[in-house]
Design a protein that fits this description.
Elements: H1 7-31, H2 43-62, H3 64-95
Helix pairs in contact: 1-2, 1-3
């Protein structure tokens, strides 16, 4: 099977993996009191937001090739759909 076929799935899995690694790192830093735990019961929200803020730029830089492959896959699907719609419209116009 072509690697292009699963570009979106691969990008999503890698992005989720980077987030999980960042969350584990942030959790470990909070556990050892290197970073603050948050205020009151906001610990989980604080850790999630911090992991998102860290993983977003990492994903942007590290997953450039996967993002480009996913973009090509989406563009190809949109082009095929446009061609089907145009063919359907031509067929309908032929009936009138």
């Amino acid at each position: 099977m072509s690697s292009q076929k699963f570009a979106t799935l691969r990008y999503t899995a890698l992005r989720l993996g980077i987030f999980v690694v960042c969350f584990a790192l942030v959790w470990a830093l909070a556990y050892f009191h290197v970073i603050p735990l948050g205020v009151g019961s906001s610990n989980a929200v604080w850790l999630l937001l911090l992991a998102i803020v860290i993983s977003a730029p990492l994903s942007f830089v590290l997953l450039r090739k996967q993002r480009d492959a996913m973009s090509e896959q989406i563009v190809a699907k949109v082009d095929r759909q446009k061609a089907r719609i145009a063919a359907s419209a031509r067929q309908e116009d032929g009936l009138l």
